[in-house]
Amino acid sequence: MRSCWWPLASLALSASVAAQHALPSRVEIEYELRRNGSVMAEVVDRLEHGNGRYELSEHWKGKGVYSLMGRAKRTSVGTLSEHGPRPTEYVDERSGRDTQRVTFDWQANTITRRYQGNVRTEPVPQDTQDRLSFLLALTFISNNNGPLGFHVADGRGMSRHTYQLAGRERVATPAGEFDAIKVTRTNDAEVTELWFAVARGYLPVRILLVEKDGTRYEHLARRIEP
Length: 226
Description:
Elements: H1 13-22, E1 26-35, E2 38-50, E3 53-62, E4 71-81, E5 84-94, E6 100-105, E7 110-115, E8 118-123, E9 129-130, H2 133-141, E10 148-153, E11 158-173, E12 176-187, E13 190-197, E14 203-210, E15 216-225
Parallel strand pairs: 9-10
Antiparallel strand pairs: 1-2, 1-15, 2-3, 3-4, 4-5, 5-6, 6-7, 7-8, 10-11, 11-12, 12-13, 13-14, 14-15
């Protein structure tokens, strides 16, 4: 199971400003994470921002038989402007695994990864996000004209992500129904689809990943505060 399914980056200034103005200074979204229709985890994402800074965290707790997987916490901190987020540090902590830590030096245009005792510094593209901030970046640009592309980095490596806008849809979640912008990505026979609620600051309310073997992982918003 790849880390890209965890819930929770050319930018159009008008869409970015609209998304930023609609976001409250603090917002929390609780998701049900389902595997092939069965709830496997509770995921809570929290965003706080102000004075040009942001802090984004994600807490994961397994449910039922998946509780044996333990807990996980991911955090991303950095700057936030009308162009979206620019991460400075990303940390991924999971039960029974080594912690991943990534730091960004935008003056030197480098990224430093720390994972399993290895430390590696290398050049970083200007459009790079981390495994959490990319969702916030998509929140800012989901009302843009596609395609939407950027690099995504974690402690193990970096990959290029390109998303396509797929129009507007009405999406139903346990938190309610929303008019949403749909964004899609296809990569090596895996399909990712994301729905961003227009009236809720383009926050992601549904995320679907279909893996090569047909396994479906789905985040569905269950609670949004405020």
